[in-house]
Amino acid sequence: MLHFTVKFSDDFTQHTPYCTVQVTSSEGVKVDEYVMSFDDFVESIRNSETENLRPMRILGVQKRKRLRKIIGRKRMKNPAIRIETPTLPVNCVKHIWINRAQKIQMVFIEVPKGKWDIAYYNTTFEQVGFPRMLFGYRIRDGRIQQLHILAVKDKGRIREDTELYKFPYANVSNGVVCMGGNTLPVIKDLAQLATMHQVFFAAPSSTCYYDTKRNESGFSDLRELYNRMQGQDFPEEWLTSKQQTFGQYCQEL
After folding, report:
1. Are residues 67 and 96 in the same domain?
2. CB 3.0–4.6 Å: which of 18, 43, 82, 194 could bond 89 by disulfide?
């Protein structure tokens, strides 16, 4: 007769809990040892209540490298193969689990080409033209850790090979936004991200990270550029390429 000894930590708050299942013979000799997530262990026990006990292949992973055998049957697929996204917001282009255990995810939202009222220091500019954009949100446990903004040309759907362009105005460096003292709301549902770009446009702008290499307009003074773009569509020929595709950018996250 085989005996199974289960050991696990009761700290379920900081990381994905794992348990160790040690198998010994009736003589006390160690036969084998398995490591799996606590959820998988509980699932196998629940299944064994209604299934004939027999060795089945499930997610018992030793050092996360190879599968093991344990008594019971796993109903869910291997999470290394089956990965579900949460319910996604409108205009979501891409969702990435950066670290599922730490609940870190990246969500990209497409914002169509349009005009927005903005504030530059203490000056208000009305209906300033912006190109088609991608807003990327790095989220951990409901808090936005980082905001990315990238420009794309207004043609076709966004794919892995879509060419990226620099955000043509200020406050963005290498795709990452400098929000200064401005803070973004806590996220309770990813659906909130569909309109989160409005917070960025409502925040006062500065000259941070702006120079003539940011666009091909020829304007070195940002105030002059904002004044010129009031009521105007942003010309796509003014966009400066990042020399990078959307897929390449995501690989670096």
Report:
1. no
2. 194
